[in-house]
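Complex record, two chains
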Amino acid sequence: EAGVTQFPSHSVIEKGQTVTLRCDPISGHDNLYWYRRVMGKEIKFLLHFVKESKQDESGMPNNRFLAERTGGTYSTLKVQPAELEDSGVYFCASSQGQASSYEQYFGPGTRLTVT
Amino acid sequence: AQSVTQLGSHVSVSEGALVLLRCNYSSSVPPYLFWYVQYPNQGLQLLLKYTSAATLVKGINGFEAEFKKSETSFHLTKPSAHMSDAAEYFCAVTWGGGNKLTFGTGTQLKVEL
């Protein structure tokens, strides 16, 4: 069974440009999460999808970030326009259920560098 | 605000020595506690979790952690370190049965010969 995959693995863009990150969850996992780690700091929750619906987007930093999950399969996270402080590693995770007893399976992350 | 604290951003041990990685949480409600490990160029992998059953939790690769409510701690231990244990370790918490993980800042474990 394939794990959570993320594309690209690395992205370097200039301030003001747009970047779209993609996450493919484990097949059959209705729950999809985005997290971000800014260098030297903790991994922080961004948002949670249940199928195609946003269950919790309390961690989204601002309206430059747009997450979608059309059809309840893969998800994209768009940053437009990118700022220097958006640099970091963006992780995606998926799980079968919402309760804490369900393990969240993480992808390898996308390292975003904004110059 | 509820938080997780990992003491020591870098820990170095000799191969065969005890591994002890510290995690403390602040919470007014019963937590669910997790330890994740990240090897280079890989995603986070769950080592173990505490979900209000036994306070001593055994995980993969010989790791275990003990939930101590009185100390609000969930320290990770392994009796004998192996070179393959070198990685970054994250303590994480959810509260009230929710599934939004709150992470500590991570501890980089180095194992030396």
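Note: The first strand of chain B starts at residue 3 and ends at 5.
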